[in-house]
Specification:
Number of strands: 22
Structural class: alpha/beta
Largest sheet: 7 strands, mixed
Number of domains: 3
Helix content: 25-40%
Oligomer: single chain
Strand content: 25-35%
CATH architecture of the largest domain: 3-Layer(bba) Sandwich
CATH class of the largest domain: Alpha Beta
Shape: globular
Length: 460
């Protein structure tokens, strides 16, 4: 039996490593168990690789139109090895940063597969199949998620891949790609592959892509993608995938059977909790479809065992949500007040233009019986947007019609993901239209369109 810890964290992703660092700073002796690369899915096969490719392909698109700005480029192309080399460089740099944080805060990193044997006991199975038992006052499960797999025939065919496959090790660029799923993962990878010259088709079961965003956002993004050549089929149900020289994806649309042919098929219907093999047979956390129910303090039905992030039943599967939950749980375990308000979670989509949302939409407010007024600014009138020849977009703010308090914001414009934070602060602090009008916005910036939206609401 190894030394006893105050906290053992299972998983070194954005939830686990943040919780571990916070706990260590609060004086808790902490260890992290990780079976794969440090940084979890987000750093190695998710957020960071995706955004590295997004940046590269946006630069590629800018070069293609740079002659309109008076810049001449004789030829432009891309190198797949170079794209993945840059992605690996970014990932390794951030991995080393996490490792430095662990060393600085005296956190033990234990490599191997964690199995919870009971209250306060974790077995770690190493790469050499050696078993070591560790004791802890508290255990925090932060094992993340994995790509969901639909129950359709043909998923095992060559060329049928997940986002883990495309974003992990080097992968050739498909000439034609079908993406099953029009959510965040699907549309981001559609944008990347479209910029690389791939013929992309999105098949989405809902009546619109990115259905969890504002309806106007979904409609505008659909128009932009279609203009760029991406085919989009919504309200469609995939029946099967067959191999006939190429991959044939068969689906039903408005009662009719359709078939699309491609070199590759990406399964991007979402993610599911990664809890397989996590618990010994004697441990029952009341899993529901693999997810872990927790109370308001993120404690499971077993005292001293907590869970955060994508494994938690009903949680929003976002890296920054997992980090926030991890920070709060570290404080709870230390007997301190949780510092972060978890009810207000920004959602971001790294397409071109970027999309970001926080708070509620006008439709949600209406469903809740809240009377609202909106302020909207079109980015076509924004100087910085015109300078950069950016795609169509807007900023929409939702205010309570009776109190003028900001309730929600939906942004579809350049730097939307950077600007959404200030609006989250405004919502959290219940700022009104008059409060927000006091702030001078610099010119020319994308940000000044927020003031235009405020003014539009003020005049109503």
């Amino acid at each position: 039996m190894a030394d006893k810890y105050g906290l053992i964290v299972i998983g070194a992703g954005p939830g686990g490593y943040v919780a571990a660092v916070e706990a260590a700073k609060l004086g808790i002796k902490t260890a992290v168990v990780e079976n794969r690369e440090i940084g979890g899915t987000c750093l190695n096969r998710g957020c960071i690789p995706t955004k590295t490719f997004v940046h590269a392909t946006e630069l590629l698109d800018e070069i293609r139109i740079c002659d309109r700005m008076g810049i001449k480029v004789s030829a432009v192309s891309y190198d797949v090895d170079g794209l993945y080399a840059r992605k690996n460089e970014v990932v390794e740099h951030l991995q080393s940063g996490i490792e430095s944080l662990f060393k600085k805060n005296k956190i033990d990193l234990i490599k191997g597969k964690a199995v919870i044997e009971g209250e306060g006991v974790v077995r770690v199975i190493g790469s050499d199949d050696a078993n070591v038992l560790y004791n802890a006052d508290n255990i925090l499960i932060a094992s993340g998620s994995k790509p969901a797999q639909p129950l359709i025939p043909g998923l095992d065919l060559p060329g049928v891949v997940t986002s883990d496959d495309l974003l992990g090790a080097r992968h050739d660029i498909f000439s034609k790609l079908i993406i099953i799923g029009g959510g965040v993962i699907g549309v981001e990878l559609a944008s990347i592959y479209n910029a690389l010259g791939t013929e992309v088709t999105i098949i989405e079961a809902a009546d619109r892509i990115v259905p969890f965003f504002d309806k106007e956002v979904s409609q505008s993004l659909s128009m932009i993608l279609k203009k760029k050549g991406v085919a989009i089929h919504t309200g469609a149900m995939v029946k099967n995938i067959e191999y006939k020289g190429d991959l044939n994806c068969c689906f039903t649309l408005k009662g009719k059977e359709e078939t699309v042919t491609a070199e590759g098929v990406l399964i991007a219907i979402g993610r599911v909790a990664n809890t397989e093999g996590l618990l010994a047979e004697t441990v029952d956390l009341g899993l529901e479809r693999g997810e872990i129910p927790v109370d308001k303090n993120f404690e499971t039905c077993v005292k001293g065992i907590y869970a955060i992030g994508d494994v938690v039943k009903g949680t929003i599967k976002l890296a920054h949500m997992a980090s926030a939950q991890g920070t709060n749980v570290a404080h709870i375990i230390a007997g301190a007040e949780p510092p972060i308000e978890l009810s207000l979670v920004p959602s971001c989509l790294y397409t071109s233009p970027e999309i970001a949302s926080v708070g509620i939409t006008a439709d949600t407010a209406k469903a809740q019986g809240i009377s609202v007024k909106t302020g909207k600014a079109l980015m076509s009138a924004n100087g910085k947007t015109i300078i950069e020849m950016a795609d169509r977009g807007f900023i929409k703010l939702i205010f309570n019609a009776e109190t003028d308090v900001l309730l929600g914001a939906q942004l579809m414009c350049c730097r939307a993901t950077d600007m959404i934070g200030e609006l989250a602060v405004a919502i959290a602090n219940k700022l009104t239209i008059r409060d927000l009008r006091k702030v001078i916005k610099p010119h020319p910036t994308f940000n000044e369109a927020i003031r235009d939206a405020i003014e539009a609401a003020f005049l109503k």
